[in-house]
């Protein structure tokens, strides 16, 4: 699978699986809405609740993974890297969308609204019964 196909797979998914590490060192996986902003296959911005378990885990341990999957074609892309919790105004405004007040009633400055910025360090693709690593930059 070439780089353009990997990008198409990532862009076509409405859901991303986000992995964090809990206090006992075990992986935790959660389905989340796809990233709102993306820079290539390196940097991804997602939204979540500041009060969430996931945010608490990322504040303790920044190690993370994103997994994009096309179940129909049995394709998957895993990205491993780090996750930052951002609460600054610029990051909040970057990913804010109309209708987000459904989740964050106080708007873009809602104290329970934050941004997760994932930075990939390496990638791995599964396609045609074969896995291989790829560069994320």
How would you describe this structure to a colleague?
The chain has helices at 3-12, 53-60, 89-95; strands at residues 15-21, 27-33, 37-39, 43-49, 63-70, 75-86, 113-127, 130-134. Helices cover 18% and strands 47% of the residues. The chain is globular and about 45 Å long.
What sequence of helices (H) and strands (E) makes up the elements? HEEEEHEEHEE
Radius of gyration: 15 Å
Question: What is the CATH architecture descriptor?
Answer: Roll
End-to-end C-alpha gap: 16 Å
Q: What structural category arises from helix and sheet content? A: alpha+beta
Low-confidence stretches: none
How would you sum up this structure in a few lines?
With 137 residues, the chain is α+β, with helices and mostly antiparallel strands. Helices cover 18% and strands 47% of the residues.
């Amino acid at each position: 699978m070439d780089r353009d196909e990997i990008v198409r797979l990532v862009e076509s998914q409405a859901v991303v699986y986000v992995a964090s590490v809990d206090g006992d060192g075990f992986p935790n996986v959660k389905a989340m809405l796809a990233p709102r902003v993306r820079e290539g296959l390196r940097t991804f911005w997602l939204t979540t609740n500041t009060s969430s378990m996931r945010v608490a885990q990322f504040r303790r341990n920044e190690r993370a993974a994103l997994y994009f999957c096309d179940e129909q074609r049995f394709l998957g892309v895993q990205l491993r890297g780090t996750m930052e919790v951002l609460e600054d105004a610029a990051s909040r405004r970057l990913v804010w969308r109309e209708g987000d007040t459904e989740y964050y009633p106080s708007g873009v400055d809602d104290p329970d609204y934050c941004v997760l910025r994932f930075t990939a360090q390496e990638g791995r693709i599964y396609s045609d019964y074969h896995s291989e690593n790829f560069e994320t930059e």
